[in-house]
Amino acid sequence: MALTLPAHSDPLADRLHASGLLQELAHGLGGPFHYLLPHRFDTNLAAFHTALADAGVEGRVYYAKKANKAAAFIERCAARGGGVDVASLGELREALGHGVRGDDLVVTGPAKSDALLRIAAQQGALIAVDALDELDRVLALDVPRPPRVLLRVHPPAQPGSRFGLGQDELDEAIRDCAEAGDHVRMEGFSFHLSGYDVHQRAGLAADLVDLCLKARVLGLRADRISIGGGFAVDYVPAGAWQTFLDRQSPSDYHAGKTFTTSGFYPYHSPVAGARALRAVLAARTPDGPSLAERLRRAGVMLLLEPGRALLDRAGASVFGVQGVKDRDAYGIVTVDGTSLSLSEQWFNSEYLPDPHLLPADDRPHAPIPYRACVAGASCLDSDLLTWRKIPFPARPQAGDLIVYPNTAGYQMDSNESPFHELPLPPKVVIDHPDDTGRPDDTGRPRWRLDR
Predict the structure, then answer these.
(1) What is the pTM of this model?
(2) Domains located in the chain, CATH noted
């Protein structure tokens, strides 16, 4: 029996796939493309804002721009009260250029360039300081207003993390900020925590609330903390995910490829997105009260930087079939793009939700699914978008489309490359009729290129 891992059903995507629009776009664009659904981003952003409001916690949501390069999502932040988390000068310029105010930016990442620090401070962005020498460079800036900073704390639960200030460094950084007086606005603390452990995130957040109270004694503002991202996305149903983990073996992959299950993203999460934020806020801290209550009592604002979670169901990736090669027990489908456009390969892993086959004609489903891996158009033997032998409902043919669902979060462009002079897949923004009120004559949503 073929190993399958279907994504959660998505009626909107199903209607779009049945509309014929994707085939027209593939023909007009002449190659693979990604489509974006910004109204889904709006829904996810609103859910995070609602979770904060329901908990009675003052907070700000910053979209982690590294999760997708599209301008459309930054524009939605500017229009709908979201901030943006940037980690490079290029990302900072993009955010400002698409309407996000400097005061609504937070600058994260490791050692930042002098230019990034200077422009961030000039624009009033909040800077998460990751090291003592970085703080020294911030304090030495000659800018019209005091730089706004958070001090990033090294997570004790993850001693191998390369991010953050250790305890002695943190003490020194707090003293330096206090001695700097009006030359800096030390607004609080932050951390970078890998993984999706709700209680670990809530516990460290509670520690940061205590740090704020101690820093205020020295005259520092210290009225906000950032807990970063780490809000999972639930891609597939629980039963399908567990069955996949229990059954998958090298025989399910082209060339007997092996993967460790610990290396896979957790494609099912029982607590995901804004519900994960609710769980963090409701988590009890060691002395009893919930994190939300601790924040309210201390008058501390909660900042968060979700990326993938804001992009849940906000886009997909579309490739055209160029040819099919039959092997003894399965096929190799070659598409008009490369695995560089599905970034999970960067982690020596695989994007696991089943891709959809959109046939170019009305041929019926085969009585037995056609198992095939999906290969890229390059001359590299390792260029596979999907190593797993996917059970397609019919044998793919040249001219068909293969759609990878829910790829907006980190998959589309983290390690893209125009290898072989193949163009990068463009991003197509799909305007939902409910948003625009202007469907075309066929009743389909309207579209435009992202930039």
Answers:
(1) 0.95
(2) 11-37+313-449 (2.40.37.10), 39-234+269-307 (3.20.20.10)
